[in-house]
Amino acid sequence: MTPTCSGKFICYPYTGKKRCGKVKYGLLEIDEKENREEATFYLFMLSKLFPFLENDMGVDLGTANTLVYVRGKGVVLREPSVVAMDQASRRVLAVGDEAKRMLGRTPGSIIAVRPLKDGVISDFEVTEAMLKCFIEKASKSQNRWKPRPRLVIAVPSGITEVERRAVCESAAHAGARSVRLIEEPLAAAIGVGLPVQDASGNMIIDIGGGTTEMAIISLGGIVFSRSVRVAGDELDEAIMNYLKRAYNLMIGERTAEDIKVKIGSVYPMEKETSMEVRGRDLVAGLPKTLTITSQEVREALLEPVQIILESVRLTLERCPPELSSDLVERGVVLAGGGALLRGFDRLLSEETGLPIHVAEDPLSAVVEGTGKVLDELEFLTKLTTSDGRG
Ligand SMILES: Nc1ncnc2c1ncn2[C@@H]1O[C@H](COP(=O)(O)OP(=O)(O)OP(=O)(O)O)[C@@H](O)[C@H]1O
Ligand SMILES: [Mg+2]
Q1: Would you say 60 and 370 are in contact if contact means Cβ atoms under 8 Å apart?
Q2: Which of 217, 227, 366, 223 is nearest to 307 (CA)?
Q3: pLDDT number for residue 50
Q4: Looking at ligand 1, which residue's alpha carbon is closest to its atom 15?
């Protein structure tokens, strides 16, 4: 007889063994909150007997987007890392896509926040609530009887021990049975299918929302990595600052991102474009519309892009010579949302002299990597660090 779930109770066949909970209709009724550990243990044992009950998830907990991979199903969730909540009670009102639509448009009583900044958790409580909601959403497509999930979470390579612990704790509070962490560039390299286990040099650059991560990988490990807290968000900010400086025009984060995605580039384009931008005139205080060209956007992006280029140069300088020669042959893979910015591959190729390949789906590279790690469990112990709970 299979266990069933009713409201806050988990019921499973009564085996005669004394457990906390009351027996009803031949089933042992366990208060999920009070006896969560016992119920989880029971379900864990079941999942060992029946592997289809396994509940493993890979999570790319990004500054801009969170993606969840469910073992055996693939990527089941991709939503912005945004939470809308009531300012006074801090009650969560919306998460993900719905909350992002509210960014910059909320009335006084509601705030829409991004709980991760520069790739790391800046608000624990809100991150926990968001992660919990995403885990529940991702589990929806699953059998209700799956035990609490084991998570593999990708984190920036440059984060501190305290920040790592914060991710583990947030995930545990959000309902994870155990948590393993994998460094983002390693996950991205696995995700795009680089032969990371070979004795040869592979290089990946992941330009996300909060951080740009770059790593040289060989024999299943990171030989050298670098993480700079300059990525998509800084590019948006650079556009906002440019419009303020040049036109006294104040625009919001979402408009800046829109400009970047629609006409942004970092290398001269064959056909330059322009777009209409609406904002608030800082002098008159009134709404204003103007047209901005792609050349202007490129000029605005110059400074943060130079920081990223400098970081790539420094990483290549630290690359052992044998691996450098591999890179000349194999090139470098570009992943993360920033890889979609027009001309980044050409600019990097010109600056480094190396062939640059943009990943097929740059936004999914990291989560696909966590998924592959889940699928090949022997990877788990080798490439990840555990929170010590399994
Ligand atoms: N077509 C595009 N052109 C330029 N930038 C883009 C495009 N699509 C998405 N982006 C940018 O990519 C960034 C999000 O990328 P991604 O989802 O890889 O980041 P993340 O993983 O959430 O962040 P991080 O890894 O830093 O924590 C955002 O800044 C977004 O504006
Ligand atoms: Mg990322």
Answers
A1: yes
A2: 227
A3: 52
A4: 337
CA 92 to centroid of ligand 2, rounded, Å: 24
What domains lie within the chain, and their CATH numbers? 4-53 (no CATH), 56-185+367-386 (3.30.420.40), 198-359 (3.30.420.40)
Q: Is the CB of 338 inside a 6 Å radius of any atom of ligand 1? A: yes
Rounded distance from Cα 77 to ligand 2 centre (Å): 15
Is the C-beta atom of 157 inside 6 A of ligand 1?
no
Distance of alpha carbon 314 from alpha carbon 323, whole angstroms: 15
Is the beta carbon of 341 within 6 A of some atom in ligand 1?
A: yes
Environment of ion ligand 2 (residues, CB < 5 A): 62, 208
What's the pLDDT at 178? 87
The tokens of 12 are what?
A: 């499973």
pLDDT along the chain (390 residues), means of 10: 35 38 38 46 50 75 94 92 90 92 78 87 88 87 68 87 88 87 94 92 96 93 93 97 97 95 96 96 94 97 97 94 92 97 97 96 96 73 61
Identify each DSSP E strand in 15-155 by its residue range: 22-24, 27-31, 56-61, 65-70, 74-80, 83-86, 92-95, 110-113, 116-117, 120-121, 150-155
The answer to whether the CB of 65 is under 6 A from ligand 1 is: yes
Instruction: Please give the distance, rounded to the nearest whole angstrom, from the Cα atom of residue 233 to the centre of ligand 1.
Output: 8
Instruction: Region of 346 please: left (phi>0), alpha (psi -120 to 50) or beta.
Output: alpha
Single-letter amino acid code for the residue at 12: Y
Confidence (pLDDT) at 125:
86
Q: How far is the CA of 221 from the centre of ligand 2 (A)?
A: 19
Q: So what's the pLDDT on residue 231?
A: 96
* pTM for this entry: 0.83
- How far, in Å, is the centroid of ligand 1 from the Cα of 3? 42
pLDDT the model gives residue 55:
76
Q: Which atom of ligand 1 is nearest to the CA of 342?
A: 3
Ligand 1, closest atom to CA 81? 22
